[in-house]
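Lay summary

Proteins are chains of building blocks that fold into shapes. Our project writes down both the chain and a compact code for its shape. Here are two examples, one after the other.
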Amino acid sequence: MNTSVGNTARLLGAGLRALLVLTVVCGVLYPLAVTGIAQALFNDNANGSEIKDKSGQVIGSSLIGQTYNLPKANPDDPEEAAKPDPKWFQPRPSNGLGSNSVNTRYSLILSGATNKAADNPDLLKLIEDAKAAVIADNTTKSYTVKPQDVPADAVTSSGSGLDPNISPAYADLQVHRVAEQNDLDVKRVEKLVKDNTTGRTLGFMGEPRVNVLELNSALRELTKS
């Protein structure tokens, strides 16, 4: 009987010691080590790829898209459609799943695609309407947008609905409208787009892209100068 109690006590003691050691190693030392390495070697990524303005204030993440809309005439009317602010470069359409009353900069509560087939009538109508809007919104007194110049990313959402990037072609299509709305020279805005264009990863992976938040942040600084 005493032997049984002693064995049980030793097993409990060994289990508690193992629990304590594993808790310290896996619950304290390992997370601290990983956090330290991440902060030292990948500080930007570890902190959410934050984008800050010149004052140091965080204005968003380079990984998540934002909308740039005009204020609603009636903020309490859920049926009122948001209208894009012509002063800013616009991102891809965001056809996500649901709405969000907390993050009003992006009306999504879940990320995801529309899950509509390529021949779905609703999707085709959505694309046709988006294309007509892109042409109308970006045609200025000195520049006419042709239907064949509208790139695919201007009228379709990404798989996540949160794509922060647009193609250089879509950014270039918006240059004249942005320049006109902000009383800027077209060449300056074209250079702004070029300076904020990222090439293919390692020179061959993916496609050239423009981060809309970074581009609009640079535009904001340009309009202040």
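And here is the second example, written the same way.
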Amino acid sequence: MGLRCGMRTTKCQLLMTSLCVMVRRQLLGLSIATLSTVTHYGLHFTLISDISVEDNSYRVIHHTAFYLGICLSMTLILAALLSSAATVRESQCLTAMGFFCFALAFCGLLPAACWRYTHSTEVEDSVMDVYDHVYEEVRRNSSSPRRHDLTAIHEAFLCCGKHSPFGDTASIEQKTCPPGQAWGAGQMTSWRTSFCLWR
């Protein structure tokens, strides 16, 4: 009788531990889905992605990151649900399916981590390319339809202007910067420290 009671207690403890781990994995999946959605639909990200230039590589990165994040989060949530059901039902088939989903998520994270390591500045460079293209188009033609895009970028990122080797940029900054944001060229801070578009 004592042995059977001890086995039940151990089994209940293992079940509770397993369920706690599964809840954490579900929360991880939900947080990845939330982060992917916020970065996909956030103003700063959609503003740059929606600007149509000849070679907007940021748009491809933007959409790819969103869909991979959603797929990863759904895989983690499915794996957690399968593992929870496998623990409750003591099913080897459900356990195998849960481990397979975790293996898929891990295999999806490896290439993403490698890409992040080998292309550490690609996102920043693609955003800067879009900004440079819009800025130079407005600099060449102040009545360009891109002026609205440049003004929207300056308002969203709370920055204004850049150093230009082609001459004075004060007239562009007066027309496209929010009131009180027209800074001198020497007062601009870098992208990495203030998320401001500047080179």
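What can we say about the second shape? The chain has two domains: 19-119, 123-194.
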